[in-house]
């Protein structure tokens, strides 16, 4: 994967997110839930927002419950715009 090395030279670096694998039922595809903490616009209270990302996993290496790091990439299918870079922590 030479893409990881090219990020330094990119004028607009690719986004990197970390989340938990919610589903691995599809072949070479994961569904990863990414939690984001944002401040409410009016009330200022911290709110958690969850986004589901469809991630390309070429080796089918991640399983449900794993914490993974994903990287933005070109569109790989109708929904997949992210690629698995590493499994940070295995599920217990």
What keywords describe this structure?
single chain; 92 residues; mainly beta; OB fold (Dihydrolipoamide Acetyltransferase, E2P); 5-stranded mixed β-barrel; 4% helix; 48% strand; globular
Please provide a written account of the structure:
This protein has 92 residues and is mostly beta strands. The protein has one domain: Beta Barrel (OB fold (Dihydrolipoamide Acetyltransferase, E2P)). The protein is built from one helix and five strands. The chain has one helix at 3-6, and strands spanning 16-23, 29-39, 46-56, 67-72, 82-89. Strands 1-2-3-5-4 form a five-stranded mixed beta barrel. A hairpin with a 6-residue loop joins strand 2 and strand 3 (46-56). The chain is globular. The two termini are 28 Å apart. 14% of the residues are buried.
CATH class bucket: Mainly Beta
* Second-tier CATH architecture: Beta Barrel
CATH fold name, please? OB fold (Dihydrolipoamide Acetyltransferase, E2P)
Share of helical residues: under 10%
Q: At the fourth CATH level, what is the homologous superfamily?
A: Nucleic acid-binding proteins
Radius of gyration: 15 Å
Instruction: Determine the structural class based on helices, strands and strand pairing.
Output: mainly beta
Report the strand count.
5
Query: What number is the mean pLDDT?
Result: 93
